[in-house]
Amino acid sequence: MSAVLVVNSGSSSFKYQLIDMETEEPLASGLVERIGESSGHTVHNGPNGKAERTLEIRDHTAGFQAMLEAFEANGPSLEEFPPVAVGHRVVHGGKRFFEPTVITPLVEINIEDLAELAPLHNPANLQGIRAAEKAFPDVPHVAVFDTAFHQTLAPEAYTYAIDAELAERHRIRRYGFHGTSHKYVSETAAQFLGEPLGDLKQIVLHLGNGASACAVDGGRSIDTSMGLTPLEGLVMGTRSGDIDPAVLIHLSRRAHLDTAGLDELLNRRSGLLGLSGRGDMRDVEESASGGDAGARLALDTYLHRLKHYIGAYIAILGGLDVLTFTAGVGENSSTVRAGAVAGLEALGIRLDEERNAERVAGPHIISADDSAVTVLVVPTNEELEIARQTLSAIGAG
Ligand code: ADP
Fold first, then answer.
1. Homologous superfamily (CATH) for 3-145
2. Which of 209, 358, 383 should be mutated for ligand 1, with most atoms under 8 A from CB?
3. Rounded to an integer, what distance in angstroms lies between the CA atom of residue 382 and that of residue 103?
4. pLDDT for 224-250, tens place per residue?
5. Which of 282, 303, 334, 356 for mutating ligand 1's site (highest number of atoms within 8 Å of CB)?
6. Does the Cβ of 280 fall within 6 Å of ligand 1?
């Protein structure tokens, strides 16, 4: 019996899942939040249901202590299901990390060094790693990078057309994100269809609060919409996605926004929220169908951008076999799925309205039988993918 603990750490919270690797089902999952506050909060879902606690959680180390107490009090017993390894989600692996990597002091230094490229994420991921190492000192810890799957991009796909020397010095290029999800979903799609992964040209649309598209050729990422940071590409909950870079120059000159102001505007006050006042797709859809013009425009802009990327990636791939929707919006919104591919019949994409409207758990086909491209909904499972990659990194997968 082997279990893997998966940790996804932010600056003031972390999520965890203990996964039984024989069944690939979670044995427990939970959340430790408001770290650094006197009223920290934990939620633990174990064999006896959900247990919550409010207590002071001074730092991540105290957070892991609280997690161990939750296992102790609510099960399952970590003596009965000891994790053989801990897998950590790390957002930025730069160009150095192209596969899951067993964490050593040198790896930690490298993750820290990449904080320059992901200042919000990598330091928080590292805090989680260091605290988890104290809680589980006797097992290997493995870093699984959001960027790793996209390390197969060709230079022409990852290069920005700016001064080459300046770009090199500041490590400016497309890295891409959501790699763990794009990998899991493209592999699951092939498996579900019973087709060899190596034969398929796929587009994966990961549409959550953050959103990205990925062109996957024979199981390898060849293009993706997020770039140096997770800001580029699709319209997102609060992020603008693609924008003429001159808008920033214009705003800094005319609206006197400094770098912090521009960062805040594009990452936190744009996207669906900026256009409609609502960052959650459910609210946007509801308002749009109620006749709200801002919400309608937000939805239409979101769909227009999606269509733009579908077309672009069909060209990059030189054809398309499978188009897959995943994550919160992709798995749940039949409106978004229908809107994204409306009018693409000439490109071989035809949805079946009834299949698209049906609520089905697990991977399912939503295209019509006569559609040349198979359109799927595949629920993503980043935790399981991290756990699988963790096992493979320690030579047990
Ligand atoms: P995250 O990127 O934070 O992991 P998720 O993948 O959980 O996000 O996706 C969250 C998004 O999914 C939210 O914007 C939410 O509006 C959207 N969502 C969830 N359920 C639905 C639904 N039934 N219809 C439309 N959007 C939905």
1. ATPase, nucleotide binding domain (3.30.420.40)
2. 209
3. 19
4. 999 999 999 999 999 999 999 999 999
5. 282
6. yes
Domain 3-145 matches domain 195-382 at the CATH topology level? yes
Please identify every residue annotated as catalytic: 146
Give CATH for domain 195-382: 3.30.420.40
- Who's near 383: CB < 8 A, 6+ residues apart? 6, 8, 17, 19, 26, 29
pLDDT in tens, 265-293: 999 999 999 999 999 999 999 999 999 99
Burial 203-239 (b: 16+ CB within 10 A, else e): bbbbbbbbbbbbbbbebbbbbbbbbbbbbbbbbbbbb
Record the pTM.
0.96
Domain locations along the chain: 3-145, 195-382
Distance 131 CA to ligand 1 centre (A): 30
Phi-psi region of 25 (alpha: psi -120 to 50; beta: other; left: phi over 0): beta
Atom of ligand 1 nearest to the CA of 281: 16
CA distance 156 to 216: 16
Residue 133 Cα, ligand 1 centroid: separation in angstroms?
Answer: 32
